[in-house]
What does this fold into?
Amino acid sequence: MARLADYFVLVAFGPHPRGSGEGQGQILQRFPEKDWEDNPFPQGIELFCQPSGWQLCPERNPPTFFVAVLTDINSERHYCACLTFWEPAEPTQEAVCSEDAAGREEEADEGGSGRLSPGTSGPPGQLFAPKTLVLVSRLDHVEVFRNSLGLIYTIHVEGLNVGLETVVGNLLTCIIPLAGGSQRTISLGAGDRQVIQTPLTDSLPISRCSVALLFRQLGITNVLSLFCAALTEHKVLFLSRSYQRLSDACRGLLALLFPLRYSFTYVPILPAQLLEVLSTPTPFIIGVNAAFQAETQELLDVIVADLDGGTVTVPECVHVPPLPEPLQSQTHSVLSMVLDPELELADLAFPPPTTSSSSLKMQDKELRAVFLRLFAQLLQGYRWCLHMVRIHPEPVIRFHKAAFLGQRGLVEDDFLMKVLEGMAFAGFVSERGVPYRPTDLFDELVAHEVARMRADESHPQRVLRHVKELAEQLYKNENPYPAVAMHKVQRPGEASHLRRAPRPFPRLDEGMVQWIVDQATAKMQGAPPAVKAERRTTVPSGPPMTAILERSSGLHGNSARRLEVVRNCISYVFEGKMLEAKKLLPAVLRALKGRAARRCLAQELHLHVQQNRAVLDHQQFDFVVRMMNCCLQDCTSLDEHGIAAALLPLVTAFCRKLSPGVTQFAYSCVQEHVVWSTPQFWEAMFYGDVQTHIRALYLEPAEDRDPSQGWEEPAEEERSALDVASEQRRLWPMLSREKQQELVQKEESTVFSQAIHYANRMSYLLLPLDSSKSRLLRERAGLGDLESASNSLVTSSMAGSVAESYDTESGFEDAETCDVAGAVVRFINRFVDKVCTESGVTSDHLKGLHVMVPDIVQMHIETLEAVHRESKRLPPIQKPKLLRPHLLPGEECVLDGLRVYLLPDGREEGSGGSGGGPAVLPAEGAVFLTTYRVIFTGMPTDPLVGEQVVVRSFPVAALTKEKRISVLTPVDQIPQDGLHLRSCTFQLLKMAFDEEVGSEKAELFRKQLHKLRYPLDIRSTFAFTLGSGHTPGRPPRATKDKGPSLRTLSRNLVKNAKKTMGRQHVTRKKYNPPSYEHRGQPPEDQEDEISVSEELEPGTLTPTSALKPSDRMTMSSLVERACCRDYQRLGLGTLSSSLSRAKSEPFRISPVNRMYAICRSYPGLLIVPQSVQDNALQRVSRCYRQNRFPVVCWRSGRSKAVLLRSGGLHGKGVVGLFKAQNAPSPGQSQTDSSSLEQEKYLQAVVSSMPRYADTSGRNTLSGFSSVHMGGHVPSPRARVTTLSNPMAASASRRTAPRGKWGSVRASGRSGGLGGDVGSRLAGRDMLGPPQANGAPPDPGFLRPQRAALYIIGDKAQLKGMRPDPLQQWELVSIEVFEARQVKTSFKKLLKACVPGCQAFESGPTSFLRSLEDSEWLTQIHKLLHVSVLVVELLDSGSSVLVSLEDGWDITTQVVSLVQLLSDPFYRTLEGFRLLVEKEWLSFGHRFSHRGAHTLAGQSSGFTPVFLQFLDCVYQVHLQFPMEFEFSPFYLKFLGYHHVSRRFRTFLLDSDYERIEQGLLYEEKGERKGPQACRSVWEYVDRLSKRTPVFYNYMYAPEDTEVLRPYSNVSNLKVWDFYTEETLAQGPPYDWELAQVSPEPPEEERPDGGAPQSRRRVVWPCYDSRPRAQPDAISRLLEELQRLETELGRPPERWKDHWDRVKAAQRLEGRPDGRGTPSSLLVSSVPHHRRSLGVYLQEGPVGSTLSLSLDSDQSSGSTTSGSRQAARRSTSTLYSQFQTAESENRSYEGTLYKKGAFMKPWKARWFVLDKTKHQLRYYDHRMDTECKGVIDLAEVEAVVSGTPTMGAPKTVDEKAFFDVKTTRRVYNFCAQDVPSAQQWVDQIQSCLSDA
It folds into this structure.
């Protein structure tokens, strides 16, 4: 029972104390005047009576009523019902307000809400003051309050004959029941009657119509967002002009939150004076009058709901998480069905008659029912996550939030997470968690209706039915008696407020009211308290937790198969089947990503623990630890699935004995997980265990029961802790005081003992094994200190664990201290403090714990020291045996294998990818560093791939990038140091060092690698050290020769050159062009810069017959060089012994540079025009960069045009002259003369060409006189051609369409291409190219004849060059890329082809995008484009001088490509070698500088100019596959070895340097005996004799063919040299290594067995496809070789076979009179490119060769005629063989032979064949099939042997003999001693004959 009203207050308008315009409220009277003891009078009521402020009004407003809510300090709510009316103001009040008259009307507007038309009953100036009647109550009966205050007002206004004191006294003494559904009629003594109904249950809120109104005002979406905002503790502000609406809206929102109680600031009506409350930092629900909307605009974090406007505004900075799907959409749809039932019927053709919609009150309950269902679904199963920590004296309950979220699959859900962390939910747990209490609708719903709700989800009508049922119950709760008796309360008459009031509201008699109150109080004390006993019951728990929101539990759905794998693996581990377990382990580690598998692992491991202990051996321990770590690494810090909780008892159970008395537990190896340092995890674990023990405490007596009650026992076992607690709470009041004390004590000591237990457990998992490394746990994850970081690294036989970063919330704040023990003690103490305080542990016990914790930690540290010490002594774990790589002869290991993991690097190879095959990477093995290569050999870590050997290697010299990385090892996921090595041969080693490799070893590896990559001197490279005895750095020993050897000769030559240069230097230091190179030269050579003097000694530079003998030898050796052989082939001049010139020749070979005095980077002999004297060349050379003056390098056999090359023009040359003619200088004449020499020289070149010979006598000096007087601006007649946009348009050509052209357009003032070049390039001789705007070409550029010489130069250089006035030569300026651009582009190309890490977006697009970004193909395009331009010019009879950059990079590329395209000779193997030797080696391409071969070149980096040239050749080869004798493999071979430094060919920068190092002439005469190949060409020759790998079978050239390849980027292909990789053997370019295949373990077939299948699987990502599936011709040639061997013939060379087949093929094609489509050599190919559609195909019958040359025909559509022809050709291949009549059998007999390892001795029939020089054996004498062959060439010795195990017993010991070969030792045994002796003699004689 409770008082209906606690206080009645009369509040009136009073002046403001500080005299401001506004007034303030004054309490005139309050009853009772003394405060009630149980309920003091609330302060500040006067503010809430007039929330907008106390103001006078010019008119009398109608009375208003609203209820404000005040909350006191004890969170009790007081309802203040306020009825306000207006009375004429007294003079004092008016005076107060007179000064504020200006704003009076405005303020008056804010007063009442629903005023009538203004009608004043007083004089015109009359003001009215508000007066308020206030009723303060703790009960929420709004209507009763409205009626009661209305009655008092009516009595006053209508002047009824009833004492106001009596009414107020009766009101204050009215007592009504609180709840229970009773009905009470009250009367205040004025002839009135009111009926009060109390709700059935107090816990359900009373909403009346407030929820329905809220939805009407704001709509579904807005209310849902307000609902989520209130639940997730955001600030909510309501705005409205109506105070009653504000309190209704707040009441409605609170009703929706049920069963959660809102526990923050709740002020439905906030007075204007308290608006600053809105900036409070805490959440709130507040209502404010809409008049103050402006004041609320600055609030940045408040959600504003405007009830009048129907809007909800959420600020940008506020994120309100929505309900989890599908609950959000379900709730939304149900709400719309309730609010708008017509919606479902709106689309029906025949709608049913309108159904009556629910009343507003009913609708209100239906809406609440929807939210009640929502909470039941959200919180379903919550009781299963409650932990009963204490039962007596009061229940202490904790909620396991992580488990709840985890089991519901809502861990990621922001909304639920915030709700569970909120204060409202904490209150919910403490209030509703109690197991024994009264229950209400929500408890029933969440326990019993969940299944129904899930079933109804997809049936909207059933959902609606359920909602209506719930609504009925809610309605009944509010209105238990529907047929309620009518109220009877007097009301004032209409417009009574406008009538002049008889008098102001009277002052009441306090005494009389007090007397009525006292009377009632006295009566109450005598009556017994009418307390209705609460009906308490056990709260039902409902069904156990199941995920109502079906969310996928991650990527892996854990099928039963996965769980089976986990179970099998564990059973293998505990049965000791380690090999089986190892096979399954990767699958288990993958399965453990799924939750079910992790739980399954924990359960399975529990089964193997007996009496809390399980002792394992080392391997078992490793496996268990590895699986535990894998489980834990995916756990979050909250451990929402209870995996860490399940493993916690196991980590202290599994252990291994390290030594007597020292045991290592699993916890020391699984500490590196973030979950262990999370206080929340430990608290949840602790409470869970406490609950288990307390439950056990009360279940124990069950065993001592009387047998008659035995039937209850099984039920007892299954009772949950909550059931037990409920029972105990029920019995508690009936227990005696002593018994109660005893139970409290028992519970407290249970909690205390658990706290001790947990202090121990925490110290186990928080103290690192090696505590000497003083560091904090959070630092444990740092990679810098790895040895101390992962405890699993401390013992080498332990599987690792994952170090995860500790978040800063982990509970360790003391980062500044380094004391581990201290940090752990503090962490445990904080934990103990929290849990013990919450669980009610006594303060004495708590103090005891604080004393105990440091001791526990210290004791544990001491135990760990012994474990740490012993674990270090463990033998290392057995890791896979390191596979040793095969080395080249002469290659030595520098660093033996370091154990590493090779990781995937983003290429598809190795990971299977689109190529197919398994993921062979990551692989585990070792990295070896040799003098030549870096080699990785190993095996895939995934045992399911099989034992495939993975090899990846590259030459040390090819290393372009090396960086340290930190990566996770593939198996154990331990962070480890690694290396990232990238090579320019497109190999990449991304390695993680194994834990056994210390950082010192890794560092040593890096240093050695660096030393080998960048040696100090070129003589330290592998090509020099290979096969030579001298150590790097020491000069080779001089040998005494009788005559001058080539070695000494080369030295003399260099000496002479130096002398000459020295002398020049002394003579004149006038002109010093930039030196050729300062790199890497010894200091004394620094003055040997080439300085040029005119007064040269005749003996050095002019050719005379009086050469010294040594010079003559120099000449003869120079003549033998490649260039000279080629010059003679081209007919460019001869060099007779007397060195006299053949005057008829236009060009001659000049020895002017034989001492390398003019140009150190040119060859010794040069082709110059016949008319130019040698001493003039000196002056010409100074005009060109690096003195590289124009020399002829090729002449067209048909048009006799010549191709010249030079460096770019020098700044001091012609261009310089043009720019500074007037500056007088002493050397003017000399400079002039040299530039004139240059002009003369060009004229001489032009004159040397046959068709221009008539102009050779013309004096050209007069033509150049203008050079000195005119400016440097080109004259209008000049023609400077610019090739600036090589990719623009394409034009047709006069020949068959064999090429595409970019446009060649004009630049600058000097016009475009003239009628010759331009029109010829465009295919028409009469017109130039059209102008840029598309108009016809300018006729001024049409010239009938073309220039004799085109000079192609850099645009920048030719800018100021004066053209030839006689127009005999023409300048073509082109834009070329520089070497640094090549370098940058290559870097990007490397990254595209060998990315180094997994791409973000997989698939071909990312590769193509990065390929395009590299611009590599654009550079190839430009080179091909320029080369084809030059070919065109040469083909048309004009000569071309290529004069770009320094003349050794792009110039070399262009002239080499031009010669290759123009001259078929260079497309043969021999010709290509000659081309490379001449243009690249002799003409001084700087291989060492561009390849950064030595330490000096390290900074310049790798610039692959030669590789780019090879790529261009490859592109041409692709388009013209029948024009090249060599195969694409040959180009890859050169591409690999020009950087490998295996051969000396591509070392150093010029012939001069090679002579200086004694390289050039050492090949002849000095070698004795076989030696390693020093030259790449020699190696190619040797290899070509053995295998056709460099040969192109489709080679069928046309003699006259000039190739014009398409050069557009769309026609170019990415060279497979960049992308392909063979992991089976490594790069295939070191042929000896690629051929080594692992020996088969047994060379004998099982007796009598049929030949075994040779079938094998070829993996594109692993094997070399060309080797595994050779093309048909290679296969046939191999077959021939095999047949020859079997038939006893000496094998012929493959080339002879091939030539014979070609000849036979030609003969075969002739009788038809036409070439058959299948012929291998088609010489009459139509005149278009024969590049497409060449297919080598294996036919269905036998191996037939068919070659289809039709580009449109696919390989499948060959005609039958071609098949037959092909078959004929195949028969020819075999026609030359006849089977030998009889084999050569020099000696034969039976011998016993010992089989391979572990195989028995067997008798075999042996045949010694002296002809074939071999020993064959058969199963028996009549057997024709040879079972094996021992090649006598490999036999090293024949010695007497000893009997081994399993040898024939009866035979004499002396009958045993062994044959030692280079591969193995064969053990033989004859039948007796004499026959043994005979066999030995026969074999010895055979050996001596050889």
The mean pLDDT is 76. DSSP finds 58 helices and 45 strands in the chain. The radius of gyration is 52 Å.
